[in-house]
Amino acid sequence: MKVPWVNILLLILLVIQTITGYLGLVNGRSSAAWTLWLHGIIAYTLALALFAKAAVIRDAWRRKKRWTARRVAFAVTLVLLLLVMALGLLWTYNGPIYLGGFSLVSLHIYLAVPLMALMVWHAWHMRFIRRVAGATGRRLFLGGLASVFGGALVWALAGRVKAWAGLPGASRRFTGSYEIGSFVADFPVVSWIADRPPLVDGPMWQLRVEGAVAQPLTLTLADLAGWPQRVVTTAIDCTGGWYSVQRWQGVGMEELLRATGVRPEAASVTFESLTGYKRRFSLEEAATFLLGLGIAVDEPEGYPATVRPLTAGHGYPARLVAPGRRGVEWVKWLAVIRLNETGPHQQSPLPLQ
Question: Which of 46, 79, 130, 200 is the most buried (most CB within 10 A)?
Answer without folding.
Answer: 46
